[in-house]
Amino acid sequence: MKFIFNGSFFEDKNALFGSLNRAFLYGDYLAEYAKVSDGKILLWEEHYFNLMASMRIFRMKIPLSFTQEFLAEEIQRVLKENSIQQAKIRISVYRNADQDELLTKASISYLIEIVQENQNSEYYWNRNQAEIDVFKDYTINPSFYTQVNSHKPEEIIAVAYSQENEYQDLVLLNPEKRIARTLLGTPFIIQGNQVKTPKLSEGGIRSITRNYLGQLLEKSDEFTFEESEIFPFELQKSDEMFILVESEGIQSIHQNRKKTYDTRKTEEIFKLLNSNLV
Question: Transmembrane ranges (predicted)?
Answer without folding.
Answer: none
